[in-house]
Amino acid sequence: MSTTQLHRRASDDATAVIARIGAGDRGRDTPCAGWDLDALLAHLIGQNHGFADDPAADWQASADRLVTSFARAPAETTVLLAEIRPDGPGRSAPGASFAPVVPAADPGDAWSRTLALLGRELR
């Protein structure tokens, strides 16, 4: 069996398992320390997109899915992006893209609040 065939088989097997995940399962712990099922799935999906053949088309497809999901969600729904969890353990890891949340320098300014959520400050 070729590597491509093995990859397809592994992907199909993973898809069958993931299809059985219910909404109540997404916060469950995984064998990966500090990762719940939701975080692990977001990571795996991100890795799949990292091998994209057509980044522009893949971006558009992901943006369309996101816009559709936002439109269906109740306005009070909390949204946590996969790599930007304000409480995630990765926020303190060496080389982390984002640091733990800090107080906003100017809470009335949207840019200041955004930077604060990413662990950054206005300079």
Structure description:
The chain has 123 residues and is mainly alpha-helical. The protein has a domain at 83-123. Helix content is 45%, strand content 0%. The chain is globular. The mean pLDDT is 80.
Low-confidence stretches: none
The biggest sheet amounts to: none
State the order of secondary-structure elements, H for helix, E for strand: HHHH
Number of strands: 0
Helix content: 40-55%
% residues in beta strands: under 5%
Structural class: mainly alpha
What order do the helices and strands come in, and which of them pair?
Layout: H1 3-18, H2 37-49, H3 55-72, H4 110-117
Tag the structure with descriptive keywords.
123 residues; mainly alpha; 0% strand; globular
Could you write a compact summary of the structure shown?
This protein has helices at 3-18, 37-49, 55-72, 110-117. With 123 residues, the chain is an all-alpha fold.
